[in-house]
Amino acid sequence: MYDDINTNISEEYKKYLKSHRRKKSAIRISRIILLIFIFVLWEIAAQKEWIDPFIMSQPSRILETLITMGKDGSLFIHTGVTVYETIVGFVIGTILGTLIAIALWWSDFLASVLDPYLVVLNALPKTALGPIILVWIGGTTKSIIVMALLFSIVVTIINVYTSFRSCDEDKIKLLKTFGANKKQILRKVVLPSGITSIISTLKINVGLSLVGVIVGEFLVSKAGLGYLIIYGGQVFKMDLVMTSVIILAIVAAVLYLSVLWIEKRVLKMM
Amino acid sequence: MDKVVEVIDVSMNYHTLEGETEAIRKLNFDIMNGEFVSIVGPSGCGKSTLLSLISGILTPTSGKVLINGKKVEGPSASVGYMLQKDHLFEWRNIMKNITIGLEIQGKLNKENQEFVEQLLKEYGLYEFRNHYPRQLSGGMRQRVALIRTLATKPNILLLDEPFSALDYQTKIAISEEVWLILKKEKKTAILVTHDLAEAISMSDRIIVLTKRPAEIKSMHQINLSCDCKTPITCREAPEFRIYFNKIWKELDVHV
After folding, report:
1. What is the model's pTM?
2. A120 and A29: one domain?
3. Are residues A30 and A94 in the same domain?
4. CA B29, CA B31: separation in Å to the nearest integer?
């Protein structure tokens, strides 16, 4: 649609584009400099013994740990376990949550009955359920996935259901005038108009699932980044803790960006 | 002429926790085949409710509506409904928006597909069939909405203030166009509107309703002396103002 803009641009517009680009690259460079600055300051502070590297760790030791872990493969095993559990919990949470939201939309009675339960479940810190799940399911990957699911499912149900409810009444009326039944109304208008909010729920969910997984690993596991963090803390290996936290930050960023990428794809398809 | 719509002793009450609202009280009127009838009345007098009753998405509290002599018991394919806004689905292209009614009624076959294509060609939308609604102007979108209604081949069209969301110029142009299309396709039409000038210029007959609960206040057969009758030329007929003033007085508007 806007292809014709670039073919014939004025000097003024060129200038505007240039200043816009310059501003953007200034922001990007500043971000990188900030990151380098923090790590360099940290390293210097540790070497000059302004801080105690045993407690605060230091970038060079983190790098060392990273290399050792990479060599013996434990880096990939633990990261893989955490990512796997997060993705499984996230996918199940989203699908199950959406299905439940559809059920609530379908039956006003069911929605009214369950409303207070959802409100309480949403407000309840899911961490508190950890020990219960541990006892019920046992200290396996399964219970960690259930934790991830618990963290994301309630938010999914509430967000998706709200978006279904906010579907334009007149659009539904339009389909009714053609004689549409409830299933057709769901498929032709309620679901497609809710898809954008389902996708934006994904972005929240992926973060929540990761929280669930880490909490689960704190409680039960024998592998995963959460396990490494809790283990490192217990044996006072701060290098291991810091390294795991940094990997976790990278994992979180990559997961978020993947969802963003999926979102772009899906919205383009529509 | 045959009666296509018969409204017989129709009453409609709404129930809410705050109480009961009587929207329509014992309405009786007929609409003939090929006729263009407008319904005017004060705001909130139940005009839209009346259309919903005729279309079958609401059931009257008492009385009945007959379409082609058969009692209405739910939406039927012989009645098309056009709403205030176009309500085109942003995620569907123009072609898919137009065929949604056929899709729902399970009639999306080759024959109907060709019929839709022919409509699109006839009314200048064929080259936009793969466009999305956001790429079209307000007037064009309303034209798409009309073709979406015509696609299921109804013989009666219910128009619920279909031009009220448009700006003045577009409104005049589109109402002219819609009128010509409806006459050409030989459809019976019932228009609900706030706009008296629009009603007089388009209709063969105008039904004036009282304020709630709606009853018939008066009916006017519109006879304008102009050679080639279309909504725009009608506005210049000498009788136009006379009808306008008469109905205006009956509406009894106090601000």
Report:
1. 0.83
2. no
3. no
4. 7
Same domain? For A107 and A229 the reply is yes
B91 and chain A in contact, CB less than 8 A: yes
In tens, the pLDDT along B196-227 reads 888 888 888 999 888 888 888 888 888 877 76
Q: What is the full DSSP assignment across A5-38?
A: HHHS--HHHHHHHHHHHHHHHHHHHHHHHHHHHH
Residue B119: pLDDT above 70?
A: yes
Contact A179 B81 (CB under 8 A): no
Nearest Cα of chain A lies from the Cα of B184 at a distance, in angstroms, of: 23
End-to-end CA distance of chain A: 16
Alpha-carbon distance of B33 to B48, in angstroms, equals 21
In a domain, A3, yes or no: no
- For residue B249, is it left (φ>0), alpha (ψ between -120 and 50) or beta? alpha
d(CA A193, CA B49): 26
Question: What is the architecture of the domain spanning B1-78+156-166+187-255?
Answer: 3-Layer(aba) Sandwich (3.40)
Alpha helices, DSSP H, located in B99-252: 100-104, 110-122, 138-150, 168-184, 196-202, 231-234, 239-251
Number of domains forming the structure of chain A: 2
For residues B82 and B66, give the distance between their C-alpha atoms in angstroms, rounded to a whole number: 20
* A123 part of a folded domain: yes
User: Residue A238's domain spans which residues?
Assistant: 69-269
With CB atoms and an 8 Å threshold, state whether A188 touches B104: yes
What dihedral do alpha carbons B126, B130, B132, B138 form, nearest 10°?
Answer: -10
Let me know whether A237 and A161 are in one domain: yes
Is ipTM strictly over 0.90?
no
Binary contact (A173, B75; C-beta < 8 A): no
